[in-house]
Amino acid sequence: MPLVGRCPLSDIRRGTIGQWKYYAGYGLLAWVEGPLIAVLLLVGLLIGSGVGSAYTRARRGWADYQTVKKTVPTARKTAWLLIRGVTTKVGVVALLLIGAVAYAAVAPDDDESAGPAPSPSATSSERPGR
User: Fold this and answer.
1) The pLDDT value given to residue 36
2) DSSP result, 66-125
3) What is the number of alpha carbons within 13 Å of residue 12 lying toward its C-beta?
4) DSSP assignment, residue 25?
5) Is residue 24 a contact partner of residue 3, using CB atoms and an 8 Å limit?
6) CA distance 70 to 62
């Protein structure tokens, strides 16, 4: 039987499937191909948009990471500089306090080194014996 030039979809819709195997490139399920392609296209678009947005987020995150990574050595140097300065100041104050305590502990006590206190002397304005 010769190939017919018209679309078998019109035959299927009319209910006259007829000689379906002689239509080149069309199968028995030709009426499913249109919606199936639309559904597959929709699924592909959904998956593609999800993957694309995830890729965009990953690229943006990677760019942000690289930017922060470049600033870390500067921040690290600044942090160590501040820590070194504070540690030096605290160390100097601690050494001064320890030195003051050591000096106070070694220095002679004023009460022990002084001799006996002078006794009060009688003044001439007072009368003796009264």
Assistant:
1) 83
2) HHHHHHHHHHHHHHHHHHHHHHHHHHHHHHHHHHHHHHHHHSPPHHHHS-PPPPPPPPTT
3) 14
4) T
5) yes
6) 12
Amino acid at position 19, single letter: Q
Q: What is the pLDDT of residue 43?
A: 94
How far is the C-alpha of 24 from the C-alpha of 3, rounded, in Å?
7
Rounded Cα gap, residues 102 and 96, in angstroms: 10
- Retrieve residue 46's tokens: 């959904």
* Class of residue 8 by CB neighbours under 10 A (exposed 0-12, middle 13-18, buried 19+): buried
Predicted TM-score of the model (pTM): 0.36
Q: For residue range 8-54, what is the model confidence (pLDDT) as tens digits?
A: 555 554 444 554 444 445 555 556 677 888 889 999 999 999 999 99
